[in-house]
Design goal:
The complex is a heterodimer.
Chain A: E1 5-7, E2 10-13, E3 19-24, E4 31-37, E5 44-50, E6 53-57, E7 64-68, E8 74-78, E9 87-94, E10 104-105, E11 109-113
Parallel strand pairs in A: 2-11
Antiparallel strand pairs in A: 1-3, 3-8, 4-5, 4-9, 5-6, 7-8, 9-10, 9-11
Chain B: E1 3-5, E2 10-14, E3 19-21, E4 24-26, E5 32-38, E6 44-50, E7 56-58, E8 64-68, E9 73-78, E10 87-94, E11 102-104, E12 108-113
Parallel strand pairs in B: 2-12
Antiparallel strand pairs in B: 1-4, 3-9, 5-6, 5-10, 7-8, 8-9, 10-11, 10-12
Classes of the chains: A mainly beta, B mainly beta.
């Protein structure tokens, strides 16, 4: 049973460019959340998707957008990249919200903006 | 405001000694509480969670945590530390309402000294 998988693992982008990160949730999970973890910080909630819709959103600008597909996989898109967007981006999956189900994380995608 | 506090940036413990990593939370209502561990350049690994019931929760790798409602704390403990326990530890709270997201503490770096 594969856990949460993310791609790519590492990437380097230039300021102003756009990036797409991908996530496949753990088998059987229907909810995907994205987190940004800057160096030396705890993960910060970006947004959450369930049934292909954004359910919750953290304090991130509209440059951050996402999508969830019918197979529950998800993408995180960041437009007009800034140097401050350099971070580890973590995808987390779980079952339906409102329960005590464990949230599992992927290994993350390291984004460096130069 | 909902928050999680990890008052220690770093904890140093000699191998074989007991360890404690502290966590306090501030939320309205009853929370779900989690501990995650992060090894260098890796994602977050689930250690244990408190949902309800027994205040002492046992988790992976010999870790346990004690939920104390009156002190709003959820300290992580292990009776005998191993060098391999050295990592970054995050306490997190999942809110039991429609705002289903995880709020993380800033993390505590645990150093186990041989």
């Amino acid at each position: 049973d594969a856990g949460v998988t993310q791609s790519p693992t590492h990437l380097i982008k230039t300021r102003g460019q756009q990036v797409t990160l991908r996530c496949s949730p753990k088998s059987g999970h229907d909810t995907v959340s994205w987190y940004q973890q800057a160096l030396g910080q705890g993960p910060q909630f970006i947004f959450q998707y369930y049934e292909e819709e954004e359910r919750q959103r953290g304090n991130f600008p509209d440059r951050f957008s996402g999508h969830q597909f019918p197979n529950y996989s998800s993408e995180l898109n960041v437009n007009a990249l800034l140097l401050g967007d350099s971070a580890l981006y973590l995808c987390a999956s779980s079952l339906l919200v409102g329960s005590g189900n464990t949230i599992y994380f992927g290994e993350g995608s390291w984004l460096t903006v130069v | 405001a909902q928050s999680v506090a990890q008052p220690e940036d770093q904890v140093n413990v000699a191998e074989g000694n007991p360890l404690t990593v502290k966590c306090t939370y501030s939320v309205s209502g009853n929370p779900y509480l989690f501990w995650y561990v992060q090894y260098p350049n890796r994602g977050l690994q689930f250690l244990l969670k408190y949902i309800t019931g027994d205040n002492l929760v046992k988790g992976s790798y010999g870790f346990e945590a004690e939920f104390n409602k009156s002190q709003t704390s959820f300290h992580l403990k292990k009776p005998s530390a191993l060098v391999s326990d050295s990592a970054l530890y995050f306490c997190a709270v999942r809110l039991l309402n429609r705002d289903d997201k995880i709020i993380f503490g800033k993390g505590t770096r645990l150093h186990i000294l041989p």
